[in-house]
Design a protein that fits this description.
There is one protein chain. The protein is mostly helical and 407 residues long. It is elongated and about 150 Å long. Helices cover 52% and strands 0% of the residues. Belongs to the sigma-70 factor family. ECF subfamily. This is Helix-turn-helix domain-containing protein.
């Protein structure tokens, strides 16, 4: 009797197909390399990452260990050499930036915090590790996430849009939605990334162009260098601007940037290169020394300096945002209930007034032809009227009428 290969290894949890691809690209492994290590073809690995098939047995366990999905899914906090925040997979010869140098240990002003959302925020004492979700209530966990991410996220959205008011509005909108869907956000692999993606989507919505207050950006900085940098960033296409801010500003790796922008790694790398080149051309002075073989230099330090130098309004307190979110949810619930009541009433009125039997419609009128025109006496002439008058007068004064007698 043979032993089945679909034993306990087949029950090992695997992430979604999209997450499998992201984990493979984060480890800079190609489909052929994974296929050779597991013992399958590249087409089979592609089927695993598109959801058409799933590995089983020993291949499932080997594939799980290879892509590292069994590791704790926490926000990337390793150096640039380990999490891929400064390296890019090869797209073409001499087309991608070189790996960024590792930053020294310790808190800096242009290095992302452990949650991966801060941008150019002063960290004199460092940002401590986030508390465990199980040791806090929902309100405390939400307030902690809001306090760690809201100020830096407001600065990010300002660099993304150039509107201080829109940045504050987008961050508050994202956190209101996060509170309404807090069970989903709290169990997410990266809650700060969830809120960041929601705020970016709201801030970059094309419907804001219809608002008169958002048709023009806020006044640019007085410093010529900062003014030129911000003007160059705002002149980029929205997708290039977002990719540049996530990779060089926030410090995400290229696979994470591609996943958040819903693009392939190759497309994200091309957008990043084109954005850096466009900004370098518009700046009065080069942002940094660029190697001709690797392309323009990263813009981490200029973006950090620009973010710290600009005055951005402070977001409201977390309890205020939670109260506003609950108020908005209550208003939408009442509106839905009122609409349902009106719909039910209209339906009942229609059923009550609708006919219960068929009524044959009246035939439309038809034109009758062949009937002669209506005739009558002709109009009297003046002579006829004179004669009629004379006759009437004679009958009043004429002889008496003879009545015959019967013998």
């Amino acid at each position: 009797m043979t032993r089945s290969t679909t034993g306990p290894a087949a029950t090992d949890p695997l992430p979604s197909p999209k997450e499998r691809r992201r984990l493979r690209e984060a480890r800079e492994l190609s489909e052929r390399q994974v296929a050779a290590a597991v013992g399958v073809t590249a087409a089979t690995v592609r089927a695993w990452e598109t959801g058409r098939a799933s590995p089983r047995g020993r291949r499932r366990a080997a594939y799980s260990r290879l892509i590292g999905c069994a590791e704790p899914r926490t926000a990337p906090s390793r150096p640039a050499e380990e999490n891929g925040s400064g390296t890019m997979p090869t797209v073409g010869p001499d087309t991608l930036p070189a790996p960024d140098a590792a930053t020294p240990d310790g808190p800096t002003t242009d290095r992302p915090a452990p949650d991966g959302t801060t941008l150019a925020t002063p960290t004199p004492g460092g940002t401590g590790p986030a508390p465990k979700p199980g040791s806090l209530t929902a309100e405390e966990a939400y307030d902690d996430l809001y306090g760690r991410t809201a100020p830096a996220l407001t600065r990010q959205v300002f660099l993304l849009t150039g509107h201080r008011g829109l940045a504050l509005e987008a961050v508050e909108h994202a956190f209101r939605i996060a509170w309404q869907r807090w069970p989903e956000v709290a169990t997410d692999r990266d809650p700060a990334g969830w809120v960041r993606a929601a705020s970016y989507e709201y801030a970059m919505s094309p419907w804001h162009r219809l608002r008169r207050s958002h048709r023009r950006t806020d006044p640019l900085p007085e410093d010529p260098a900062r003014r030129a940098l911000l003007d160059a960033i705002l002149g980029l296409p929205p997708s290039y601007r977002r990719t540049l801010l996530l990779h060089d500003g926030v410090g995400l790796g290229l696979p994470e940037t591609a996943a958040e922008t819903e693009a392939s790694t190759h497309a994200a790398a091309c957008r990043l290169l084109n954005a850096r080149a466009a900004v370098a051309e518009l700046l009065p002075a080069p942002a940094g020394a660029a190697d001709p073989g690797t392309g323009p230099a990263p813009l981490r330090e200029p973006l950090a300096a620009l973010s710290l130098a600009e005055e951005v309004p402070a977001p409201p307190a977390a309890p205020v945002v939670r109260a506003r979110g609950e108020r908005v949810a209550e208003l939408w619930t009442r509106a839905a209930l009122y609409f349902g009541v009106v719909l039910i009433g209209a339906t009942a009125f229609t059923l009550h007034t609708a006919p219960t039997h068929y009524e044959e419609p009246l035939a439309p009128a038809e034109r009758v032809g062949g009937v002669p025109p209506l005739g009558g006496p002709e109009k009297l002439t003046p002579q006829d009227l004179k004669l009629q008058k004379a006759l009437k007068g004679e009958l009043a004064h004429g002889p008496e009428r003879l009545v015959p007698r019967i013998p």
